[in-house]
Amino acid sequence: MSYTEIFFYIFAVLSILFALLTVTRRNAVHAAICLLLTFFFIACNYVLLEAEFLAAVQVLVYAGGVVGLMLYVIMLVRKDEADEVRQSLGQRVIAVFIAILFVLEIAFISLLAYYGNYSGFLSSKMAQIGGNTESIGAVLYTYFLLPFEVVSVLLLAALVGAVVLAKNRIER
Amino acid sequence: MLETVILTIAKIIIFFAVLMFFVAYGTYAERKVAGGIQDRIGPLHCGPFGLLQPLADGLKLFFKEDITVAKSDKPTYYIAPILAVVPAILVIAVIPVDENIMITDLNIALLYFLAVSSLSVYAIMLGGWAGNSKYPLLGGLRSASQFISYELVLGLSIVCVAMLVGSFSLRDVVLYQKDMWMVFKQPIAFICYMIAAIAELNRAPFDLPEAESELVGGYHTEYSSMKFAMFFLGEYANMVVSSAIATCLFLGGWYAPFSILPFIPGFIWFLIKTFLIFFFMLWIRWTYPRVRFDQLMGMSWKVLMPVVLLNILVTGFIVTFGR
Lengths: 172, 323
Hints:
The complex is a heterodimer of chains A (about 170) and B (about 325). Chain A is mainly alpha-helical and about 170 residues long. Chain A is built from eight helices and no strands. Chain A has helices at about 5-25, 30-50, 50-75, 80-85, 90-115, 125-130, 130-140, 145-170. The termini of chain A are far apart. Chain B has one domain. Chain B has helices at about 1-35, 55-65, 75-90, 110-115, 120-130, 135-165, 170-175, 180-185, 185-200, 210-215, 225-250, 265-285, 295-320. In chain B, α2 crosses α11, α3 runs parallel beside α11 and α11 (about 225-250) packs across α12 (about 265-285).
């Protein structure tokens, strides 16, 4: 087994372990820390795949930003109160449906990558174009420009929606 | 293979030792500068000119009673002080001290710096929360909102530099500044970077997370002994590291100013410049009073953010049409 493989299995096992801990911890802060570690180990796997840019952005945005904001909200809930509340939204059916959808999507992509011609660029080919960051930038702003802009507008809409909801509550 | 491993380990040890030296004598410099500005003398009694003061402080902190709060959340309580130091130490991996003296020349060094330093917010947040006490929690929450706002400004001001250089590697950034330092090409980005860096470090005039007058001691109120010292260490290590990054980004790294005095080796210049920025941070701290919290957030979102975005736009035009 090569070094890469050994490291891959270490990081893969750790990310799955912490993902499981995220959904099983009763304490919300502990769950958030486990989520943080999950993101971190997924970033480690990106590094092994020689997708350094993706790894850095994963840590910067998800581990640094998103989990930070989550913790911010969780910390405002009183600790003893949070332990007593039954932490379920009663949306089990929808959750199972979405989970199955995700598994199917991942399986579909893996099959495409394995048997089809959609395996993407190899990192050596990527380096010829001008490295990881440049090639992602080039592809994102030419070939995937429309989806990229649609996602941006979607995020902006979510942002405006959150502000409007919060503002209504303050004015009441 | 083995040679590279040994060489890398040796480099890491030397870099770490230099960082820790800077951190220890950073506290000494802080107290001496504070003394000077307030017309006092500062530490004097340990060794000549009080030079052994950092050692005495360290020894004192080691031997203090280590108190754990009874109703604290134990794992989080123990992790938080470690998280305060680790990100700062991780950043030294990408800092180029001279043209060929660095631990690794990462092609995403700037992103790595941003990603790793964004993790240091958890130390303050979790430290504030784990003690199960009101004031540290308030300090932690303040710090989190402050950190997230100013991190955006910091990242965007680095983008201005990366656009001109066309690379995320810190070595390339310094090599680009051979003839002219970045501070003259991107003065606005430099000012934004410095403000954001000081705000991220929770230092005066932006030290609201540890405002003594209203929050007792802030997020580390419930910590004592070596755990408190770790928070302290983390703050100074972060200061040194962000001074070093500022030196690379804006002050030409190891290059001598205006090609004079080339006989002094590059790494000496690097250390001098890093210390000058460090001194600048101390100077600011002991000169300005603390700002109000709404002023702090307002400045980030309403002043710095539009300014730095405009700067990116102008830089983009220059990069596109200037060539």
